[in-house]
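Hi Prof. W.,

I finally got the Glycoside hydrolase family 2 catalytic domain-containing protein prediction working! I wasn't sure whether to trim anything, so I left the full sequence exactly as given:
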Amino acid sequence: MLAACCCRAQASPLPERPAEVRIVQQQGRYQLLVDGQPFHVNGAGLGGGSQEALVAAGGNSFRTWQSGDVDKTLAMLDRARDNGLRVALGIEVARERHGFDYDDGQAVAQQLQRVRAEVARYKDHPAVLMWVVGNELNLEYSNPAVWNAVGQMADAIHQIDPRHPVMTTLAGFDAGLIALLKARAPSLDLIGIQLYGDIDQLPRKLVDSDWTGPYIVTEWGPTGHWESPLTSWGAPIEATSTEKAQALQQRYQDYVASDQRQGLGSYVFLWGNKQERTPTWYGLFLASGEATPGVDTMQYLWTGHWPANRAPALRPIQLDGRAAIDSVVLAAGKPYRAVVQARDGDGDPLAYRWYVLQESTAKSIGGDHEQVPAAVDVPLRERGEGVVELQAPASAGNYRLFVEVRDGHGHAAHANFPFQVSR
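And this is what came out:
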């Protein structure tokens, strides 16, 4: 089922006053109201991507993760106001996995004081839609006192700002977690649900956990690196940008937009670009700014119309005539051929960029910061459209071959291939 919007959106500035945002229940269905009007979240997690591109694609909202940098946050909110976008404003909350002790009363009180100050600072901005208190605080945690702290924050926010709902986001959920939230943070207005390859489990999880309240899918997207097939040495195999776009369409229609009773919308991850196992895994844009097929898909899902000019499509890379799942091992310094089949439905000429990076050794979780792996200087000779000859790195180790295919109109497709080099 498609979202309600049926035409390409245009930027229209928001009124110069704070919005009155409520969640109501009518005939067994939850609905988000902004100044009394129904508002279904067609949004994205904003990670350096263009707000204006989000509006052009039919988006009406984005979410963030932090608001501690005052100048940066105010500039972002002002830009959102001018673009007519509503913001689910993220408030950083310390995580147990990073060493925070929720049994330390003084530390918890100091954090609450900081949260109060941030809410007071931004609560009257016209672009604020709701508050997102922390992100995936249930990831690798053991102390349920964190939910008492979340409940205290929700109570404090409601006292300071009665106009905007409050949620926290969960990395998956089950009956035990929902029971803790109901008991320790009952004043939360809704929850944020974050699922990737397992989003097909969302309907069952809602039933099994006995969550009957409203929610937003605050993160969803391609199959996660922790869920993907692995090579024999443990490197995750990333889907192509074309495969990801196909998954976005199926997952949105079947598991996001299909819930008209409890679901208030979603924020696809990620409107921008970031390094997380690879530089291309989650971002809907390349680091150089080109939009991938996933952007086209989101425009279709939000508006019912594909863009006039679309991104290229491609098939997975073949290296030495084999697929990534074959766990390809190359001999150091030897020549090999890689092939990718790409096409452009608009007939635009395509430009190919091939490069090799070291395989990421990051063990971070929950989106923690990672460095882009180092580039590897190897000879790469194009032997025709979509064909490249590369010389395997001289040093044994784990590597990844990337290709980016651009259409010259601000769009690109991409794929990569993990491989190993032996001496």
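Helices lie at 51-56, 70-83, 105-122, 145-160, 175-184, 202-209, 241-256, 293-303. Does that look reasonable to you?

Thanks,
D.
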